[in-house]
Write a structure and sequence with these properties.
Order of helices and strands: HEHEHEEEHEEHEEHEEEE
Strand order of the largest sheet: 2-1-3-6-12-13
Number of domains: 2
Number of helices: 6
Helix content: 25-40%
CATH architecture of the largest domain: 3-Layer(aba) Sandwich
Protein name: Ribose-5-phosphate isomerase A
GO biological process, one term: pentose-phosphate shunt, non-oxidative branch
Catalytic activity: aldehydo-D-ribose 5-phosphate = D-ribulose 5-phosphate
GO molecular function: ribose-5-phosphate isomerase activity
Pfam families: Rib_5-P_isom_A
Strand content: 25-35%
Number of strands: 13
CATH class of the largest domain: Alpha Beta
Radius of gyration: 17 Å
Bound molecules: ribulose-5-phosphate
Length: 219
């Protein structure tokens, strides 16, 4: 099976986790695009979606799925999103699609994060994938120096401006031994909008696409 077929597999499987009659939180990325295309088939059974990016909003609306303002939604039973890496505790690195801040907001609104990913995303320890950090442009020098002091090598992602008007630093070489501690540490630095470690908002369930089918991990 190709990686695209594995993404399609988990995109389909995720539909079973959508709560009928409720609003669903929708992430960003190629795996989520598969999910959105499946969600379109049951759009009459949901109350709409809260989206984590302009790209997902456009895809949802193209399917005729109502996209609601996050501030008008009080209850979000489920958030469905992909990941760049996920460990065996449900901690993730996210932000490969530069949508990490809105993804973390919608994840925090939701009762349950269901991660959908192909099997290559499952890792023992987070950190092989360059860690995205969304930063207010005037702080990119300051934050880069602090990341270097932690042992990382940050690079500004070329040509990318986030939906919030900020830049992304991609950081290689960081050892993420304690995801929760590193998330709260980096998030506290002035100028950092969001770090792409999802520990506080970790997944409760992961639907992993494998050549043998969907493997479900509960955390
Ligand atoms: O965090 C993300 C976007 O900001 C995505 O969930 C992550 O990059 C995985 O994307 P894909 O499903 O295309 O592999």
């Amino acid at each position: 099976m190709t990686q695209d077929e594995l993404k399609a597999l988990v995109g389909r499987a995720a539909v079973e986790h959508v709560v009928p009659g409720a609003v669903v939180g929708v992430g960003t990325g190629s795996t989520v695009n598969c999910f959105i295309d499946e969600l379109a088939k049951i759009k009459d059974r949901i109350a709409g979606a809260v989206s984590s990016s302009q790209k997902s909003t456009e895809r949802l609306q193209a399917h005729g799925i109502a996209v609601l303002d996050a501030n008008q939604v009080d209850s979000l039973p489920v958030y469905i999103d992909g990941a760049d890496e996920i460990d065996h505790g449900g901690h993730m690195i996210k932000g490969g699609g530069a949508a990490l801040t809105r993804e973390k907001i919608v994840a925090d609104m939701a009762e349950r994060f269901v991660c959908i990913a192909d099997a290559s995303k499952l890792v023992q320890t987070l950190g092989r994938f360059p860690l995205p950090v969304e930063v207010i442009p005037m702080a990119s020098g300051l934050v880069s120096r602090r990341l270097r002091a932690l042992g990382g090598q940050p690079r500004v992602r070329e040509g990318v401006v986030t939906d919030n008007g900020n830049v992304i630093l991609d950081v290689t070489g960081l050892e993420i031994r304690d995801p929760a501690a590193m998330e709260s540490d980096i998030n506290n630095w002035p100028g950092v909008v969001t770090v792409g470690i999802f520990a506080r908002n970790r997944a409760k369930v992961c639907l992993l696409g494998t050549p043998e089918g969907v493997r479900r991990l509960d955390f």
